[in-house]
């Protein structure tokens, strides 16, 4: 069962540090594939810390790991990286800036792996 | 004096947009066919000839007809002053931007910045317009300063932004920030509008025929039946632009944007 | 290989040597003007042409953090003038705030070869030099903003003039500045909490000193250091009706000292508001005529688009409130402020038209052309591209009266212009655009055509219409090379950055290090600009001016 | 011959990682290797300590090649291209910026940089209404009210708070933190909220509404609504009083505004608020800029072309139009036919469709390190890393330029040298000095 959320992205200290190790480094990938979610939302989606979820937009989808966060219900956070890029469309509404934050996403538990 | 028919031959699969600023009646009406074919067009960093991209029929006319898929062709009718351009397909960016007079008809969709900063004339788009139709280029104080843009389909973001004078009519929907920071002029939207309509407006009117989320910085002042709306609708019908019959409906008048001088209005049709 | 050029048969205007249209050959060798060429020389046939020294602009805004901010702020302005790339030259844009390469080319096309950026904040001077490095064709220098420097205010508060002198010397030395600039002394410091100063004796917030004290202290320092140029002052209350009194008071406070008053037009206003706005050009000219210590540049207004850029933060806020135009402000830690507001001068606007008239009155009422210089305070009064138009106004009384008929009607009864029949001669134009500013700057190799001078030479086709004549130089030689022909740049040359050769003073470093730590946000070690960062440079010696 | 162990400490080193551009680092070098970095935050420290990890190698079509051959191949691609793109330039320095623009001018390219997808909306907002702002030292010396909006400096700009804005003591803020009120406004709590006296959580996509509301309140209007952005109107009234009551207020914003719905218009609304507050007190605003030296690239591009980003040179002179000549649009619409990416990982950072187009065209990557871009580039040219192995100038977020030092050697040339050599090779291939048929001037 998919549920709609607003996904925001941003820098984290760990993302900033691990990027120096290269984008293939495990630490880096761990950081940019961790999705912060409100515990109430996790419960509603029936996912636990570490479970995989699929994020889907009109432009693509990504599978990431869930983690309890301080975000308010309905909001998701993930660090900048390739997992979020897959979800972003190229339209900029004539501003040059794609919709990189505040993306509307569908989330569902991923049992494929 | 007939018309000049320019049929697009395509760009050999290239995705580089073609800039065709010389295609205006002002220029073409002075030229014979051979001269028209030798007008410069800009394909990326190369300057080529109009004849490389279009087959030309007719000459010395201020009536131009364009055929073929022109969605990768920019700058048609930029700054035009007189005459008429009929585009039988979709067209790329900047069509009719900065035009001061004459008429452009697009039988398809138009790219972004259609009629941007225009000061006169008529731009009639059969399909949909992109972002910033009738708006300003970045940094300019004003967008459209006169003339009329008629859009039968929908429009993108910031349509009518920074507008100073003139009229924009949209039969379909608009995205966010319609009439952003407008200073005067009128926008009619028969479909739905996106968020933040009229944000930052100083004066001018935005007439909406569907309910919308009005910004908190607008204040409901009255409900009335504005005569000017009736007059505009009658004028539109007489020019052949079909608009829905609204009878003698009343409009809620919201005044704003109070974050600026607050003398603009959004009128919302109440049925 | 020595390059030599003989310019034959031109009419030479070289006011420093009293040459007033004398037909004479000029010889150039290795970038200098020489008595006689040794051996073979390329010949320029200048028969019927007019030869002047290369133009010298004593006050312009072409490179600084604020100028670049203005460029970034005004894409709509650049769309008015595009300059395509040519082999060996770079592309760029105009109009009121041209890009760097274009700035150089446009100045050169007018026959200018030396220009001075009139305001750079010390902490942004690294930026200013990098921009100047990208302005080809002309020699250039910059004046460091000092009139609101908080270290100077602190020293002044404790009465330590000697410390101010040493600190100023350290700044000039470290930053390769050419001169000292004061902008609204005390007022910009007040602006840091949203205020301004009203007059010379108002105390500056927190520092217990007055604009008068700042003016006097820094003028003293300027002379003590023996800088080639006098102190360069943008007085308090720029643009405000009734400001002529504070301008007069400023000059009186510095009586007997060399002083340059910048863009006086903007400081010669009477009246109490913009309705009762009047010209006080006569009062100003009377004072200046009687005080040979004063030089001025005019800051002539031209009609059309301008971009106002100044360190005078409070004035720019006032202008924003007046015009509702976009407003940029950048307050700079420890040192100064800056503001930018686009502006359009309109012929039919009473205030604008009177500003235009006041500028011309200033030119025509000041008797000694060696002390009044051509400027628009580019781009505050309008772009420097209009210098030829101003020259025509000065040389052609008939053209002036035609213009006067076009502008706002009320101006006619509020200006002396109809009664000023004076017409500048070419000789006088050569003074106000070349010889005069070069002398005021203390640049001995500039502004004249005597042996030993830099071979910076502008050659024009004499025409009745002086605007046409000065718009496109027939030839411009920079350091003895032909860089402009028929009004077009034919070869790029880098030009040199000129700075005052002030000895460094490392003894002050310990104290300054502590002040930097407390009040700045950069390390003192990263503040100075090494000479290597100025690939083409020239130091101008200091010492007591003659 | 005995070689003494080389040990040296380089002082006043400027860090290239973020727009705080700290210039007080001490780098300890031993035998040409960086052993320790003092004064830096973790992000800056890692920049230096890990500068040798994941280095790129020169290659063409995946096969090892000499730098010389790579430069030749790059020049070949660029000289042929009709609508090339030069992009990146955040992690490099002023002289490389200069050369990149010169190259763009020469080949009639589109040139854009990382600002385009971070704070370009802020630049556009400034072009629209201006900005009242200041250098960071003014905040240090005077600010008694600091607001962070849609920003997380605690993680993205770690030393901003201690050097410039929160705890630092200055001329008229002798007690540092005690002299300041700090407010954080965002859609979620972050480590930045912990630095603040007050955290106000607003709903996503409501920033524009909130700024407009605050400005209307500042202008003396009361509004007919009870809440805006999920926060009661009374709280906004209180905030306006706090703003008006400050002696010197500053509002720092981040990409929470530039990347969300409304884009530059969010920032326009913010800047109008700051401007209007100056009727009551000193109130300024500033974007928290910078990954690397994006500000520097915007500066150089502006002085050389007149425009801060999204510049097109295809007609022989600079044109500017975000949405048309900006990188995300050029790639998203699949228009450019070759690309040179310098000192940035375009493919690693772009929306999928834009990255896909980059993979489909001749691509040149100049970078010290391997990245998603170097992985697929036809030509890879490794460079000496600016600020570590190449000197230059970087700009701080408030446009103050600072010198970058060369701390250690690199076997590879600097960005500026690589670009200079490409320019020379392009010129050699185009005896007409690079210019294709020049376009005439547009009309006024």
Molecular structure report:
The complex is a heterotetramer of chains A (113), B (271), C (546) and D (444). In chain A, 21% of the residues lie in helices and 33% in strands. Chain A is α/β, with parallel strands linked by helices. Chain A has a single domain (3-109), classed as Barwin-like endoglucanases. Chain A has a six-stranded mixed barrel. Chain B is mainly β. Chain B has a domain at 93-269. In chain B, a hairpin with a 2-residue loop joins strand 3 (40-43) and strand 4 (46-49). Chain B is elongated. In chain C, strands 1, 2, 3, 4, 5, 21, 22, 23 and 24 form a nine-stranded mixed β-sheet that branches. Chain C has an eight-stranded parallel β-sheet with strand order 6-9-10-11-12-13-16-20. A three-stranded antiparallel β-sheet of chain C has the order 17-19-18. Chain C has 17 helices and 26 strands. In chain C, a hairpin with a 4-residue loop joins strand 1 and strand 2. Chain C has one domain (51-489). Chain C has 546 residues and is α/β, with parallel strands linked by helices. Chain D is of the alpha/beta class and 444 residues long. Chain D has two domains: 56-116 and 292-387 and 411-438, Rossmann fold (3-Layer(aba) Sandwich), CATH 3.40.50; 120-287, Dimethylsulfoxide Reductase, domain 2 (3-Layer(aba) Sandwich), CATH 3.40.228.10. Chain D is 36% helix and 21% strand. Chain D contains 18 helices and 22 strands. In chain D, helix 9 packs across helix 10 (233-245). Chain D is globular. At the C-D interface, helix 1, strand 7, strand 8, helix 4 and strand 18 of C face helix 3, helix 4, strand 8, helix 5 and helix 13 of D.
Write the layout of secondary structure elements.
The complex is a heterotetramer of chains A (113), B (271), C (546) and D (444).
Chain A: E1 3-10, H1 13-18, H2 26-32, E2 34-37, H3 39-45, E3 52-56, E4 61-68, E5 75-79, H4 82-85, E6 103-109
Chain B: E1 4-8, E2 18-19, H1 25-28, H2 33-37, E3 40-43, E4 46-49, H3 50-53, E5 54-57, E6 63-67, E7 73-74, E8 84-87, E9 103-106, E10 122-125, E11 145-151, E12 165-170, E13 186-189, E14 205-208, E15 219-224, H4 227-238, E16 251-256, E17 264-269
Parallel strand pairs in B: 1-6, 2-7, 6-8, 8-9, 9-10, 10-11, 11-12, 12-13, 13-14, 14-17
Antiparallel strand pairs in B: 1-5, 2-3, 3-4, 15-16, 16-17
Chain D: E1 7-13, E2 25-30, E3 33-38, H1 42-49, E4 59-60, E5 63-64, H2 67-80, E6 84-88, H3 94-107, E7 110-113, H4 120-129, E8 130-134, H5 136-142, E9 145-149, H6 153-156, H7 160-165, E10 181-186, H8 191-195, E11 198-201, H9 207-218, E12 227-228, E13 231-232, H10 233-245, E14 248-253, H11 255-258, H12 264-277, E15 282-287, H13 294-305, E16 311-312, E17 319-320, H14 327-332, E18 338-342, H15 346-349, H16 352-359, E19 363-366, H17 372-376, E20 379-381, E21 392-395, E22 401-404, H18 415-429
Parallel strand pairs in D: 6-7, 6-18, 9-10, 9-14, 10-11, 14-15, 18-19, 19-20
Antiparallel strand pairs in D: 1-2, 2-3, 4-5, 4-20, 7-16, 12-13, 16-17, 21-22
């Amino acid at each position: 069962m998919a549920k709609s959320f607003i996904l925001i992205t941003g820098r984290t200290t760990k993302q900033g540090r691990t990027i120096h190790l290269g984008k293939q480094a495990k630490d880096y990938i761990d950081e940019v594939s961790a999705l912060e979610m409100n515990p109430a939302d996790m419960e509603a989606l029936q996912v636990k810390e570490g479970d995989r979820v699929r994020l889907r937009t009109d432009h693509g989808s990504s599978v990431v790991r869930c983690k309890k966060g301080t975000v308010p219900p309905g909001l998701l956070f993930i660090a900048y990286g390739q997992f979020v890029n897959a979800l972003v469309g190229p339209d900029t509404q004539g501003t040059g800036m794609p919709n990189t934050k505040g993306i509307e996403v569908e989330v569902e538990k991923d049992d494929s792996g | 004096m007939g018309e000049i028919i320019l049929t697009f031959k395509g760009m050999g699969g290239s995705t580089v947009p073609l800039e065709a600023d010389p295609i205006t009646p002002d220029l073409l009406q002075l030229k014979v066919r051979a001269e028209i074919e030798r007008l410069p067009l800009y394909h990326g960093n190369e300057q080529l000839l109009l004849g490389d991209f279009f087959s030309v029929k007719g000459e010395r006319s201020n009536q131009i007809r364009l055929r073929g898929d022109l969605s990768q062709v920019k700058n048609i009718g930029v700054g035009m002053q007189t005459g008429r351009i009929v585009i039988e397909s979709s067209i790329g960016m900047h069509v009719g931007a900065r035009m001061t007079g004459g008429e452009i008809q697009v039988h398809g969709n138009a790219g972004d910045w259609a009629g941007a900063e225009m000061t006169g004339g008529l731009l009639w788009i059969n399909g949909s317009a992109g972002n910033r139709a009738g708006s300003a280029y970045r940094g300019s104080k004003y967008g459209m300063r006169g003339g009329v843009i008629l859009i039968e389909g929908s429009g993108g973001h910031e349509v009518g932004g920074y507008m100073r004078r003139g009229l924009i009519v949209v039969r379909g929907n608009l995205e966010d920030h319609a009439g952003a920071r407008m200073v005067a002029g009128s926008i009619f939207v028969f479909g739905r509008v996106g968020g933040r309509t009229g944000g930052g407006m100083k004066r001018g009117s935005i007439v909406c025929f569907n309910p919308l989320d009005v910004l908190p910085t607008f204040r409901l002042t009255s409900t009335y039946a504005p005569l000017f709306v009736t007059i505009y609708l009658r004028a539109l019908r007489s020019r052949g632009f079909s608009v829905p019959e609204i009878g003698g409906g009343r409009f809620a008048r919201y005044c704003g944007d109070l974050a600026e001088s607050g003398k603009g209005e959004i009128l919302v049709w109440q049925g | 290989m020595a390059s030599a050029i003989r310019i034959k048969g031109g009419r030479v205007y070289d006011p420093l040597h009293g040459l007033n249209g004398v037909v004479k050959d000029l010889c150039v060798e290795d970038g200098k003007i020489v008595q006689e060429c040794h051996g073979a020389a390329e010949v320029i046939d200048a028969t019927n042409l007019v030869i002047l020294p290369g133009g010298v602009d004593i006050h312009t805004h072409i490179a600084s953090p604020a100028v670049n901010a203005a460029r970034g702020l005004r894409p709509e302005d650049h769309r008015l003038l595009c300059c395509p790339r040519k082999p060996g030259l770079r592309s760029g844009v105009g109009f009121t705030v041209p890009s760097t390469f274009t700035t150089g080319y446009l100045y050169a096309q007018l026959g200018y070869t030396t220009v001075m950026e009139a305001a750079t904040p010390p902490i942004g001077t690294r930026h200013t030099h990098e921009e100047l490095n990208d302005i080809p064709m002309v020699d250039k220098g910059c004046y460091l903003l000092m009139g609101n420097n908080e270290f100077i205010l602190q020293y002044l508060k404790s009465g330590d003039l000697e410390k101010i002198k040493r600190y100023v010397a350290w700044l000039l030395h470290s930053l390769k500045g050419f001169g000292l600039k004061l902008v609204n002394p005390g007022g910009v410091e007040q602006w840091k909490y949203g205020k301004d100063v009203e007059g010379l004796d108002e105390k500056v917030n927190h520092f217990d000193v007055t604009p008068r004290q700042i003016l006097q202290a820094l003028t003293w320092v300027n002379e003590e250091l023996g800088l080639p140029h006098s102190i360069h002052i943008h007085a308090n209350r720029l643009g405000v009706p009734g400001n002529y009194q504070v301008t007069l008071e400023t000059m009186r406070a510095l009586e007997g000292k060399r002083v340059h008053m910048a863009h006086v037009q903007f400081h010669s206003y009477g009246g109490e508001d913009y309705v009762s706005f009047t010209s006080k050009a006569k009062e100003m000219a009377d004072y200046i005529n009687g005080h040979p210590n004063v030089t001025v540049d005019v800051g002539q207004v031209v009609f059309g688009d301008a971009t106002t850029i100044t360190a005078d933060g409070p004035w720019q806020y006032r202008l924003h409130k007046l015009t509702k135009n976009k407003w940029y402000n950048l307050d700079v830690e420890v040192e100064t402020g800056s503001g930018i507001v686009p502006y359009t001068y309109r012929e039919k606007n009473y205030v604008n038209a009177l500003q235009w008239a006041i500028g011309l009155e200033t030119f025509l009422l000041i008797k000694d052309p060696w002390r009044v210089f051509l400027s628009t305070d580019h781009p505050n009064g309008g772009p420097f591209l209009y210098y030829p138009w101003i020259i025509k106004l000065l040389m052609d009384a008939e053209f002036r009266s035609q213009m006067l008929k076009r502008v706002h009607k009320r101006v006619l009864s509020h200006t002396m212009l109809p009664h000023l029949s004076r017409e500048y001669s070419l000789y006088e134009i050569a003074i106000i655009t070349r010889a005069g500013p070069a002398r005021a700057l203390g640049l001995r190799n500039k502004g004249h055509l005597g042996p030993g001078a830099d071979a910076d030479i502008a050659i024009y086709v004499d025409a009745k219409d002086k605007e046409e004549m000065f718009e496109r130089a027939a030839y411009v030689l920079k350091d003895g090379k032909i860089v402009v022909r028929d009004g077009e740049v034919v070869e790029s040359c880098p030009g040199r950055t000129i700075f005052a050769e002030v000895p460094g003073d490392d003894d002050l470093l310990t104290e300054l290090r502590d002040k930097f730590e407390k009040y700045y946000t950069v390390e003192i070690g990263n503040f100075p600009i090494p000479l290597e960062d100025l690939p083409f440079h020239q130091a101008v010696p200091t010492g007591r001016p003659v | 011959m005995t070689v003494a162990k080389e040990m040296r400490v380089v002082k006043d080193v400027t860090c290239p990682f973020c727009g705080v551009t700290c210039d007080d680092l001490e780098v300890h070098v031993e035998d040409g290797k960086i052993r320790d970095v003092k004064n830096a935050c973790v992000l800056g420290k890692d920049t230096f300590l890990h500068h040798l990890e994941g280095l790129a190698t020169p290659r063409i079509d995946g096969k090892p090649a000499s730098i010389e051959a790579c430069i030749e191949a790059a020049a070949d691609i660029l000289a042929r291209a009709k609508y090339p793109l030069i992009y990146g330039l955040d992690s490099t320095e002023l002289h490389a910026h200069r050369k990149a623009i010169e190259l763009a001018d020469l080949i009639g390219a589109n040139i854009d940089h990382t600002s385009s997808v971070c704070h370009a909306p802020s630049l556009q907002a400034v072009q629209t209404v201006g900005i009242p702002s200041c250098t960071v030292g003014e905040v240090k010396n005077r600010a008694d009210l600091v607001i962070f909006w849609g920003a997380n400096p605690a993680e993205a700009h770690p030393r901003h708070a201690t050097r410039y804005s929160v705890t630092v003591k200055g001329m008229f803020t002798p007690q540092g933190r005690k002299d300041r009120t700090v407010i954080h406004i965002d859609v979620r709590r972050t480590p930045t909220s912990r630095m603040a006296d007050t955290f106000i959580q607003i709903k996503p996509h409501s920033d524009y509404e909130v700024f407009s509301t605050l400005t209307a309140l500042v202008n003396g209007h009361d509004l007919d609504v009870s809440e805006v952005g999920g926060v009661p109107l009374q709280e906004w009234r209180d905030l306006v009083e706090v703003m008006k009551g400050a002696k010197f207020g500053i509002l720092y914003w981040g990409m929470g505004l530039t990347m969300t719905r409304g884009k530059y218009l969010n920032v326009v609304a913010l800047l109008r608020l700051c401007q209007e507050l100056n009727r009551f007190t000193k109130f300024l605003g500033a974007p928290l800029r910078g990954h690397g030296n994006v500000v520097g690239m915007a500066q150089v591009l502006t002085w050389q072309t007149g425009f801060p980003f999204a510049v097109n040179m295809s007609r022989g002179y600079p044109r500017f139009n975000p949405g048309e000549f900006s990188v995300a649009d050029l790639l998203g619409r699949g228009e450019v036919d070759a690309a040179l990416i310098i000192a940035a990982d375009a493919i690693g950072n772009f929306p999928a469709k834009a990255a896909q187009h980059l993979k489909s065209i001749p691509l040149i990557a100049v970078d010290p390190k391997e990245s998603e871009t170097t992985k697929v580039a036809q030509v890879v040219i490794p460079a000496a890393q600016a600020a570590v192995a190449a000197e230059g100038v970087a700009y701080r977020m408030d446009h103050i330029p600072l010198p970058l030092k060369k701390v250690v050697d690199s076997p590879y040339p600097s960005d500026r040298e690589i670009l200079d050599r490409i320019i020379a090779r392009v010129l050699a291939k185009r005896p007409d000095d690079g210019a294709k048929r020049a376009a005439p001037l547009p009309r006024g």
